[in-house]
Write a structure and sequence with these properties.
mainly alpha, 0% strand, disordered C terminus, Sugar_transporter_CS, cell membrane
Length: 446
């Protein structure tokens, strides 16, 4: 195991291998999808018990996404100033408290506020995980690890509705939040015992508001970065259009019960995971920007087919599922590569850059989620939002990012300086270890 130079002697903790690091970071990132997806089978039940309209209940999902977006804008710069581990711990603690308070929420308004707080708590895992990856990797190496993260976090949408459905068989919708609270509780000791600090005091940035705004300003002046952030945001909007509408479309329009809905929804997440795990295979032959472009084209075409199937009813549920799964697979290919390309040139402010990326992703998702309900909460409404997100993502990619004009500098792993420290345990670094190249590249950039 190669010790990363960012890990101090006082911590006596070595950086985990790539696989273990992906599992650790994925556990924190998965808190977001679990919080979003696990209560989806209970939306109709919440609507009935709290005497709230379907659209109002869907706004609790919007509140979670808004909390995720706004929380990242604060937590990202904070992680650049105080390090990565403390914001992770604080986020898990806030999520735990909000989940327990849901158990006594008397109405939909209080539930909505608590869902916002849950979103803020999960924001720490979402943004800090990306920052840690950027602390250690860039280019293809970063895209590969993002793919592994997507595998771990992709398991959450597969399992979450099914777990939620099982919980609803033995208790009511509040029991879902008991499970979420238990998960957050497990994450607290993992923050300190298993995850090392990857940002030393010498590499931290000022926490002053002026410095933070200047950093955000410099990022917003980078046309390519802003374009890639929007591409990721509208891709996520397509996913959340599906998440927001699936419960009502599958259960009420097509008559699936809560357990079958969980299985069908999870099957869609399998295709999302398949896209993320096919990405490392593609990276052996193509650059991240090339794969991102191809995924955007494929996702847009599948989205247009999805609208046709929803409008005509051709094929029934199966006719709707096939193009939807194709959109999810295309999104799975796009999502690891967009942040890899966007963060490649911003290692000096990885937390802030990751925060802006994540905030736009979940902010656009929060804005788009109510559209499905506003358009009628049926298959055509869901298909329109999903396809619209992919169309806009492709348009921004072509008009703003212009990937064919980008240099290939960020696509290859960075060279190892001659002064890079050597491994003390292996002559040849293991495939699942953080090698000298990743560690030395960070030192060279700073």
């Amino acid at each position: 195991m190669v010790l990363h130079p960012f890990v101090t002697d006082s911590s006596r903790t070595s950086v985990p291998g790539r696989l273990r690091l992906a599992l650790l970071l994925g556990a924190f990132v998965a808190l977001g999808p679990l919080t979003i997806d696990m209560y989806l089978p209970a939306l109709p039940q919440i609507s009935n018990e709290l005497a709230a309209s379907e659209s109002l209940v869907q706004l609790t999902l919007t509140g979670t996404l808004a909390g995720l977006a706004l929380g990242q804008l604060v937590i990202g710069p904070l992680s650049d100033a105080v390090g990565r581990r403390r914001p992770l711990f604080a986020g898990a603690l806030l999520h735990l408290a909000a989940s327990l308070l849901v158990l006594v929420a008397p109405n939909i308004e209080v539930l909505g506020v608590l869902r916002v707080l849950q979103g803020i708590g999960t924001a720490a895992g979402a943004v800090v995980a990306m920052a840690i990856v950027r602390d250690l990797y860039s280019g293809r190496d970063a895209a590969n690890l993002f793919s592994r993260l997507m595998l771990v976090m992709g398991a959450a949408p597969v399992l979450a509705p099914t777990i939620g459905g099982l919980v609803l068989r033995v208790t009511d919708w509040r029991g879902v939040f008991v499970v979420l609270a238990a998960y957050a509780l497990v994450l607290l000791p993992a923050t300190w015992r298993a995850l090392p600090e990857t940002l030393p005091p010498s590499h931290r940035r000022s926490a002053r508001i002026g410095a933070t705004f200047r950093t955000y300003g410099s990022l917003l002046r980078d046309r390519v970065f802003v374009g890639l952030v929007l591409v990721a945001g509208f891709t996520m909007a397509a996913l959340f259009g599906y998440v927001s509408g699936a419960s009502f479309v599958y259960q009420e329009q097509f008559g699936l019960d809560q357990q079958i809905f969980g299985l069908v929804f999870g099957a869609g997440a399998v295709w999302l995971i398949a896209g993320t795990q096919f990405n490392p295979v593609l990276l052996r032959r193509f650059s991240p920007r090339q794969i991102l472009s191809a995924g955007a084209v494929a996702g847009t075409l599948a989205g247009l087919v999805l609208i046709g199937a929803a409008a005509t009813g051709a094929g029934g549920l199966v006719g709707l599922l096939v193009p939807m799964w194709a959109v999810l697979a295309a999104a799975g290919v796009m999502l690891p590569n967009a942040p890899a390309v966007a963060l490649a040139q911003h290692g000096e402010a990885a937390g802030t850059a990751a925060a802006l990326l994540g905030a736009v992703q979940f902010g656009v998702g929060a804005a788009v989620s109510p559209l499905v309900g506003a358009l009628g909460n049926d298959a055509l409404a869901m298909a329109t939002v999903v396809a619209g997100g992919m169309v806009v993502a492709l348009t921004v990619l072509a008009a703003v990012v212009r990937p064919w004009s980008l240099p290939d500098a960020g696509d290859e792993p960075e060279p190892v300086p001659a002064s890079a420290p050597a491994s003390t345990e292996h002559a040849q670094p293991a495939v699942d270890d953080i090698g000298v190249a990743g560690a030395a590249a960070v030192t060279a950039r700073e």
